[in-house]
Write a structure and sequence with these properties.
This protein has about 300 residues and is mainly alpha-helical. About 75% of the residues lie in helices and about 0% in strands. α1 crosses α12, α6 crosses α13 and α7 runs antiparallel to α13. The chain is globular, with a radius of gyration of 19 Å.
């Protein structure tokens, strides 16, 4: 099997793994966990694993003086993206939220054009022209009930903050720092922030069942660690553009989980919105593929 084929498989599996976020987080909401509780376990366990992996590879986790601010500011944007995404699950179907998050490449192109004078490409314009009606359609509902606008806004805020993080990687000192080190500090800083939101006047929130513990552990292992490792591997083997395109599987997996596991409604309206968003993002990715990714 060629390296490119291995990269495509890794990209598909990585995107699918990230799309499993709702599968493990929503059951924890049902047993009384808040999004902050869920995110603490996800970030803490993943930080231990990623930090251990980096050390085993001979990496140095101590930040240099010039790395401290880029690491902290980058972590802040990723943390905001995670908070807004996980709170959006409380207001809209998980598949819709994951699809709205997937517009982040369009947000990246828009930010680079508006603030860094990057040339606006025809593909970006076409992508935006398709994404806007896609988002509007996803704001409608197949269930007959109005979609909560709070969820749509939170999911789009998650996409924007993640896009800002990607721009920061391109234009700040973050692009000189190993991806594993960035992930470790993002996860560690996030775990500390989420822990600060715990209500210590009550019992420390711990899963009371094996199912609960399974969701906590798998939430860290699959959507966090496995998705990161597989996506990084895919970029090295197949390149950033194919990896980004395979990212379209992420909202597809989330939609399937929502339908099969959580019985979320899925009709023509949702299908049309998902399809428009995925096509629009792929167009933008392809139109900007000539630009070398920092991860390559």
């Amino acid at each position: 099997m060629s390296n490119a084929a291995k990269g495509y498989i890794a990209a598909a599996l990585g995107a699918a793994a990230y799309g499993l976020n709702p599968l493990f987080s929503l059951p924890l909401y049902e047993i009384g966990f808040s999004p902050m509780n869920v995110l603490f376990y996800r970030f803490f366990i993943a930080a231990v694993i990623v930090g251990g992996m980096f050390k085993c590879q001979g990496g140095n986790l101590l930040p240099a003086k010039q790395e401290i601010w880029p690491l902290f500011s980058g972590a802040l944007m990723m943390i905001i993206s995670s908070i807004t995404l996980f709170y959006s699950y409380k207001y809209v179907d998980s598949g819709v939220a994951s699809t709205l998050l997937f517009v982040y490449p369009i947000a990246v192109a828009a930010v680079m054009t508006c603030f860094f004078k990057e040339k606006l490409k025809l593909g970006t314009v076409l992508g935006i022209a398709l994404a806007v009606p896609g988002v509007v359609i996803l704001s409608l509902s197949d269930s007959g009930q109005p979609v909560r606008w709070e969820g749509v806004v939170l999911a789009l805020a998650s996409a924007l903050s993640y896009a800002i993080y990607i721009v920061m990687v391109r234009v700040t000192g973050l692009h000189n720092i190993p991806a594993e080190k960035i992930s470790f500090y993002t996860l560690s800083i996030g775990a500390v922030i989420f822990l600060a939101f715990f209500d210590f006047s009550k019992n420390f929130p711990l899963p009371a069942t094996l199912t609960g513990w399974g969701c906590v552990i798998l939430l860290a292992l699959l959507p966090a660690v496995a998705a990161f490792v597989l996506t990084t591997k895919a970029i090295h083997l197949a390149g950033a553009t194919p990896t980004a395109i395979f990212g379209g599987l992420e909202p597809v997996v989330a939609v399937i989980c929502g339908i099969v596991v959580f019985h979320e409604p899925f009709g023509f309206t949702t299908a049309a919105g998902v399809l428009l968003v995925i096509i629009s993002v792929i167009i933008v990715i392809l139109s900007n593929s000539s630009r070398k990714s920092p991860a390559q």
